[in-house]
Amino acid sequence: MKPFVSLEERENMPFKTYGAYGLKVVDLQKVSEQIIKERKEKGMSMEIHIIPVHPDRFKDPYSSITFSKDKLTGILYGIPIGLYEDGNVKWRKIIIPEHLDLDLSKQRDAEVWAVMRMSEKIEGTPLQIESNASPQFKLYDAEMEAQKDIIKIEDKMKAFTLAQQLKDKELISFARNVGASVTPTSTIGTIRGDIFKLADSNPTLFIEKWEDKDRIVWEVMKNALAVNVIVLDTQKGYQYHAMPMGMNEHQVVAKLNAEKDLFLAISKEIEHKDEISKRIVKTEKVYVEQPPQTDFPEDQLETVEETSEIPEFVIKNKGGRPKKQ
Question: pLDDT value at position 59?
Answer without folding.
Answer: 76
